[in-house]
Amino acid sequence: MTSRTLRAMTVLTAAAALCSAAPTAYAAHTTTATTTATAAAAASSAQAADRRVPRIVTAWARAWNGSEPRALGALFTADGTYTDEAVAATFRGRKEISGWKARADSLIGNVHVTIRTTRSDGNRITVRSVYSGHLKGAPKPFAVPMTTVIDLDRHHCRIVSNKDHYSLATVLAQSGLPADWTPPTT
Length: 186
Hints:
Number of helices: 6
Strand order of the largest sheet: 2-1-6-5-4-3
Shape: globular
Distance between the termini: 53 Å
Structural class: alpha+beta
Largest sheet: 6 strands, mixed
Radius of gyration: 23 Å
Number of strands: 6
């Protein structure tokens, strides 16, 4: 059992024990046992739901892993934004976002995003993944943890905002490049 499941069962068990108006210890035990079994089933179901990756996230990873920059741009609303926090760059609209993907492909060989977990909350999805590739001209490839916060439109069909968070210092260190390295401008 995970600590999350144990914590949920402990809280529900304590709540059932405190709220129980059962006249005997046996009745209280029966209520607590039933509540614990129900809580365990609910926690297990919630964990199974967390393992399902939302369709838009699968499409997002497929677009990053593919070679067609417009596939990434097409996932966004017309005025959507893509922010790469590590390089302090924001792109607006499908054309700029597609251009960012094309630039990334020209600088990084074998760009790949591997989804580890997702967490949905309303129109927001937090994606934990591994961002990997090989900066062109670098002696070694990199693979760093990345967290992406994706905000969806009200229909959950398109991305309104995407913010990637990863360590550029770690990318450069793993790649064998100096900390002040900058990509070529052409």
